[in-house]
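User: Just a sanity check before I run the rest of the batch. Below are the structure tokens for the first item. I only need the designed sequence back.
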């Protein structure tokens, strides 16, 4: 009887957690972090990292034919945590006394992801300025088709993104696809040119900000 009562209390507690918190999200976040820290190789800051995922029944929309649009953005949280841990980007920012928040996101959907489909999310840094780091994510199906592409502007607080990237590039080995090149025998670090889509996106965000300031 005692065991039965204990089990009932545990079930009630679990149900309450599910009611008041998205428990599945927190559990998966812990799992993603543990896998990145314990089972995956460390990555260079300019590396492209990959996580695997699957569209489950709690990811689909009311049409029951494809993944809900909002779930794409939710999946990016797990991709970023994996990237932050494996590259030590978040650790470096914290060591400098800074923080990082999501400044803005843009996503383009190309083809829906069907229920129970397995897909990958790739993550890489494509540009940075003094305040922000721009990260590109791609949702890639088993047929290598890019189902969606997202760009996230990660805003750094209390530290400079330029300084953080300089530290990251100097502390990690030279990488074939990095911004490091030899010039007259010296190692010179080049920042990549701003991609056109980010240039136009920033212009759009600035117009939006200007309109909001008028209100």
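Assistant: Here's the designed sequence for the first item:
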């Amino acid at each position: 009887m005692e065991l039965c009562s204990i089990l009932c209390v545990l079930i009630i507690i679990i149900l309450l957690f599910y009611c008041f918190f998205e428990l599945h999200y927190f559990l998966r976040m812990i799992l993603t972090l543990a896998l990145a820290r314990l089972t995956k190789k460390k990555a260079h800051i300019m590396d492209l990292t990959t996580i695997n995922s699957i569209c489950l029944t709690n990811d689909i929309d009311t049409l029951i034919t494809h993944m809900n649009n909002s779930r794409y953005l939710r999946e990016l949280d797990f991709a970023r945590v994996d990237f932050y841990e494996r590259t030590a980007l978040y650790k470096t920012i914290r060591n400098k006394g800074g923080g990082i928040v999501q400044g803005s996101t843009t996503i383009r959907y190309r083809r829906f992801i069907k229920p129970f489909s397995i897909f990958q999310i790739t993550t890489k840094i494509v540009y940075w300025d003094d305040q922000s780091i721009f990260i590109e994510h791609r949702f890639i199906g088993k047929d290598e088709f890019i189902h969606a592409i997202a760009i996230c502007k990660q805003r750094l607080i209390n530290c400079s993104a330029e300084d953080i990237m300089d530290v990251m590039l100097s502390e990690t080995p030279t990488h074939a696809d990095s911004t490091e090149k030899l010039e007259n025998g010296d190692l010179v670090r080049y920042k990549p040119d701003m991609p056109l889509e980010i240039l136009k996106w920033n212009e759009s965000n600035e117009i939006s900000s200007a309109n909001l300031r008028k209100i």
